[in-house]
Design brief:
single chain; 389 residues; alpha/beta; Maf protein; Rossmann fold; 8-stranded mixed β-sheet; 6-stranded mixed β-sheet; 36% helix; elongated
């Protein structure tokens, strides 16, 4: 191995971040090089090679319009980041989602360009590289080598390694990079310069048109109950449902920027997620006019409970009227209460004139009794067991 590359990889292994790496079309040499330098277990959480179309689609959660494109590379990195978030549930360390999708020399002629799209997604930033290789300038090993060098360089940058050898680009090659700064946007939210922002599945920022349907929560952690509810609601509404991470909650301090970014990273590559500063639904209504709020029974019960409005029925009715007049609605899923009784919308005494504000999700379409609280408790118990061993 080239001593400069070995030195780069050693610096990566010695840095705190740990990565999930996904590659298709090229990048196997980068994985081999990472594993070939002692200390790889300090860097790699997992490596995935979703080569066949079915495997690729399953990893991405969809069939892409193009398998080798900027958007697909970004989504792959997002899925890798979300996977890294899941794998480190019992530990705390920086994480990176690293991905490559490429089309290089093969055993049949390629009419299109030889190219690679590499992306490194951390909770605070997404960086992308689009590499176009000069045709017929290299054999497959040569193109694989250059793409793998780019992957290592991308990982080095994500890990904060400043000393990186230059890429051996040829005169007919081109390399374009770009980035999205989630940390900067979260900082603006924290300072009150914006009230909300969104992150698309491919990492693009959403700041203009708010979503038309939202499932709000702390998502600590995100689990199958949340995603299943969102998918069911989207089926009923006929529009995608975005997740909203509440940066400000009633009776709780605002989320620190780092914590907010970590929560948002759970959705990377797969779902639209929004961060907002409205702690109550009437305030959310002002941020997301005409949106449908997807909630559980317990949340719907609080929406019509005067004690959440300073013990004022008048204030509660005024808030409901404001949301109704702004075109908002609530789509309500049943929930199991602390006594293991399944509660549904029909049990709530909706105030006169506001029945049209609420609609039910039938239990036959969706029911999931697992809560984030139970998952956190189970993780805490496992953490205690591990500390005793």
């Amino acid at each position: 191995m080239d001593p400069a590359i070995q030195s780069l990889i050693q610096a990566i292994h010695d840095s705190p971040p740990r990565a999930v790496f996904a590659a298709a079309g090229a990048g196997s040499q980068a994985l081999a090089d990472l594993l070939g330098v002692p200390g790889a277990s300090r860097t790699l959480l997992e490596a995935l090679i979703p080569y066949a179309a079915d495997s690729f689609d399953e990893f991405l959660g969809r069939t892409p319009e193009q398998y080798v494109s900027v958007e697909t590379g970004r989504r792959m990195a997002g899925r890798a980041l979300a996977r890294a978030h899941h794998l480190r549930e019992l530990e705390t360390f920086p994480i990176v989602g690293l991905a490559c999708t490429a089309a290089i020399v093969t055993d049949r002629p390629k009419r299109g360009e030889h190219r690679a799209h590499v992306a490194a997604w951390t909770p605070g930033r997404l960086t992308t590289w689009a590499l176009h290789l000069e045709k017929d300038a290299r054999d497959r090993a040569g193109e694989e080598g250059l793409v793998s060098r780019l992957i290592l360089d991308a990982l080095g940058e994500a890990c904060g390694v400043a000393a990186r050898p230059p890429l051996p680009l040829g005169p007919g090659d081109s390399l374009v990079s770009g980035s999205v700064d989630f940390a900067a946007e979260a900082g603006r939210l924290r300072r009150g310069e914006v009230r909300w922002f969104g992150i698309e599945p491919d990492g693009a920022l959403m700041t203009e048109s708010p979503p038309t349907a939202l499932l709000s929560g702390s998502f600590n952690p995100l689990h199958a109950g949340h995603t299943g509810l969102a998918e069911t609601a989207a089926e009923l509404l006929g529009v995608p449902v975005a997740f909203e991470v509440s940066a400000v909650n009633v009776d709780k301090p605002p989320l620190e920027t780092a914590v907010l970014l970590e929560r948002l990273s759970q959705f990377a590559g797969r779902w639209l997620v929004v961060a907002g500063t409205a702690p109550t639904f009437v305030e959310k209504s002002r941020l997301y006019p005409a949106a449908t709020f997807v909630v559980g029974f317990d949340t719907a019960a609080r929406v019509i409970e005067p004690r959440y409005y300073g013990d004022s029925k008048t204030a509660m009715l005024a808030a409901l009227a404001e949301m109704r007049d702004r075109g908002n609605h609530f789509l309500v899923a049943g929930r199991e209460d602390k006594d293991s009784r399944f509660r549904e919308l029909g049990e709530l005494a909706i105030p006169d004139g506001f029945a049209g504000l609420f609609a039910a999700i039938p239990a036959g379409m969706f029911r999931n009794d697992v809560s984030s609280t139970e998952i956190r408790a189970a993780l805490k118990e496992e953490e205690v067991k591990l500390s005793v061993r």
